[in-house]
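re: that complex we talked abt at group meeting.

here r the seqs, copy pasted straight from the sheet so there may be weird spacing, ignore it
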Amino acid sequence: MVKCSFCEKPAVYINSISKLAYCKRHFIEYFERRARRTLRKYGMLREEEHIVVATSGGKDSIGLLHIMIKLARKNPKWRVTAVLVDEGIKGYREKTIENLVKYAERFKVDYVIASFRDYIGMSLDEIVLEGRKRSLPYMPCSYCGVFRRYVLSRVARELKATVIATAHNMDDIVQTYLMNIISNSWDRVLALTPVRESENSEFIRRIKPFYEIPEKESALYALLNGLVKPEFVQCPYVKYNIRFTIRKMLNELEDKYPGVKYGLLRSLQTITSFLKSPPGIKERHKCIVCGEPSSQRICRACLYRIQLGLVERERVESILKLAREDKDLERFLRYYDII
Ligand code: SF4
Ligand code: ZN
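got the structure back, here u go
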């Protein structure tokens, strides 16, 4: 039996880089200290905040919610609301919604569940079928990611939130980093910072308090605190996403060469510091369809909505009319096969 490096109790976790072993109590202390340190290091929170915690009901986001609630209880100027975006994925999302509801009732947390059906007009399952019918070139996860961010921003604005906290951990970040290198999406690489702000005052600041925390630690934190059941539920669309192959590959590399993920995170930080303030990542525009902050004239969610036939005909016609006098807009719409 391996003993905790800080007491006599049996270890539940060994950090593969520092080689330190932790019992349950010392692991929870260590984990919360790291999260607090990340919040401080990147100046994530201000004196007075209404924090929306984006939660899927899974282990990482429930763990983040738990930490934010603990912090807010010590700071009366911080208020926390959990927001769960229900994409409408049959047989999957119902289970994680149950986790959030149970957690919120147990710890008396305010929460909102917002569905794709209410904000976009269709569930993800319906969107995927409609997209196939229309031969659109997108994978389920592309719609899911774009619409989820869109719904989250809309709900956060309705709640008058000052900041949105997401549970992206180090593994998520380095996976996304590699995916964006592969697709040559440098604007998205540059969006992978621990804090994301914009010159546009309507853009709600986004923070990632688990930016430097490995996935296995955030999962263990939720399990040791009894926040979620140790069951495995997987989205049926996972097989279409390159992320999961990259995740497997990175985990294999990390097992063989501990520190690979930290190395990639440092590489990402170097690149973002070299390429600061590129023109594409600022939400300079207001989407001409929905009014949300956007880096383009029409935000990606509205582009998809137009392509899926979810924007009223008159609205689309007025945009096409505008494009007749606006060459940039015309080029943009042509690029997406809208005209
Ligand atoms: Fe959405 Fe894809 Fe994740 Fe499923 S696997 S929840 S479709 S991003
Ligand atoms: Zn829009």
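couple things i noticed - The chain has a mean pLDDT of 92. The first strand starts at residue 13 and ends at 14.
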